[in-house]
Amino acid sequence: MDRKRRSYDKLRIIPIGGLSFIGANCTAIEYGNDAIIIDAGMGFPSLDHLGVDYVIPNPRYMQQNAKKIKGLVITHGHLDHIGGIPKLIEPMGFPTIFASQFAKELILNKFDSDAKDIAHKVHVKTVTADETLRFGKITIEFFRVNHSIPESMGVIIRTPKGTIVHTGDYKFDNSPVNEPQADYAKIARVGAEEEVLCLMSDSTNSYREGHSLSESEIANRLEDVLAEVEGRVVVATFGSMVNRIVELLKIAQKLNRKVLISGRSMQVAIRIAQKIGYLDVPKTLFVKGNEIKKLPDNKVMILATGSQGEHLAALARMARNEHRDIKIKNGDTVILSASVIPGNGALVQALIDELYQLGADVIHNEIMNLHTTGHGHKEEQKLMINLVQPKLFMPIHGFKSFLMEHAKTAESMGIPKKNIIIAGDGDIIELDKFGWKKSGRVPAKPINVSGSLVGDVGNIILDDRQQLASYGVVVFELVIDKKTQKLMSSPRIQSRGFVYMKTSKELISKSLEIIGEEYEKNKKKGMDEIRDSVTKSLRKYYYSVTEREPMILGVITYL
């Protein structure tokens, strides 16, 4: 009986997040009654998600299958791969987390800052690219890849139905800094010897032709530029680009500049890099904010977060002259060592303008390319396909158009169109040596996180926030004698974000008239009926006059 049951065990790939936008990467791999989760990241909200801090993958599948989940496997330590763990580990049933040493430290730091109350229940086991893990009938191995953070790994998932290769985020860099090259030999060996059933491959840069620039080339360019700067220099980059930060610190040491770190995420990354041996510079390289004024300008380098113009980040506060320790002045050079994330162009341009107005010279990608990506371009994607030689191909990580462009690349490499899996978040993909099919769906709508609230900010609340942000609010007040049903005072009205009351006397006067009329028509009815009638009439009037629809709230008091 048991043998017969096992013969019908199915191999499934279930992407829970990461296939509809950038971030919130999370995938379940199932074989029979065993399952693993690969990554549990966070994503950033869209512009209309007002007041939402970030989003996480939907936990419903994890809650329903917690007994199946044997482990959470982490490819690397970026937030779009680990940021959701504090919110999702409990729905998973607290499985062991398997991560590299660097990712482990970042995960533990995340629990320390976001979820101290459950940190004692969490077990994170350090793994290397040379280890093998076994979860029932599923066996896991890893292979090194290059990315913008240390110890990034791809995953080899072996099951009785076939082998799946998950690349994680990757590029092929033949001259990397602070890390070894990708494990070409291991990837090629798996492809040559195992007849890989499916390759799941990073699609982030599927539109970009050619090869990505080597990180060592960017390091050389940065050193050349920094060597020529005579005054203070501020370098802004992503706090998560650890390899870039490490190289900048080495350049500062070589050029005899002291370094001030501004930005919490960057401080955390540097502390972890020092702790595990990725960064070996003397403590005397670093200075505090109150010490920077004592140094000559040509002996100072400031590393800051905020390359995307984020309002609260260090560089934006400098640009607004609101930073506690650093005031931008004539002679300063600001280097933006980061590409502009789509949608952030206006913020970055405003940041550059503000810095120029303060007297700084700003070097950014439009002037000189001082940034390279951590994700492979088309030629690297082709190389991965050639090395793995998969039967089936499944593009992952990115918007739908990214996946489809990656699919075109795979087809150009000889993979039949019928063997290319364009999945969406929540699709259940069943696969075996004969092919693949979609066999259902799991809930995959991302969950909004706002402060300490998880999932409570739904569409109704977001619609209300959008209406408030777009048109403002009008509040009317009625005080009623509950015995006589007469108004005890004239109706009152307040506007916030809709019209300026002092210059809109005609509109306010007509509003008060409508409120009085509607009350007289409905005063024998209940409070809710009065409120609804007044609200409906005001909404109709406001739209006819202004073509705007403010939120209308009614306060009715019986005395």
Structure description:
- There is one protein chain.
- The protein folds into three domains: 9-210 and 373-454, Ribonuclease Z/Hydroxyacylglutathione hydrolase-like (Metallo-beta-lactamase, Chain A), CATH 3.60.15.10; 215-363, Metallo-hydrolase/oxidoreductase (Rossmann fold, 3-Layer(aba) Sandwich); 472-558, Ubiquitin-like (UB roll) (Roll), CATH 3.10.20.580.
- Helices cover 31% and strands 23% of the residues.
- It has 16 helices and 25 strands.
- The strands form five sheets. It has an eight-stranded mixed sheet with strand order 7-6-5-3-2-1-19-20. The protein has a six-stranded mixed sheet with strand order 8-9-10-11-12-18. The chain has a five-stranded parallel sheet with strand order 14-15-13-16-17, with helices on both faces.
- Helix 6 packs across helix 12 (378-388).
- It starts with a helix and ends with a strand.
Low-confidence stretches: 1-7
Examine the secondary-structure arrangement and name the CATH architecture of the largest domain: 4-Layer Sandwich
CATH topology of the largest domain: Metallo-beta-lactamase, Chain A
Report the average pLDDT across residues.
Answer: 89
Q: Reading side by side through the largest sheet, how are the strands ordered?
A: 7-6-5-3-2-1-19-20
What's the main sheet like?
8 strands, mixed
Name of the CATH superfamily of the largest domain: Ribonuclease Z/Hydroxyacylglutathione hydrolase-like
CATH class assignment of the largest domain: Alpha Beta
Q: If you compute it from the alpha carbons, what radius of gyration comes out, rounded to the nearest whole angstrom?
A: 28 Å
Distance between the termini: 75 Å
Shape: globular
What's the helix count?
A: 16
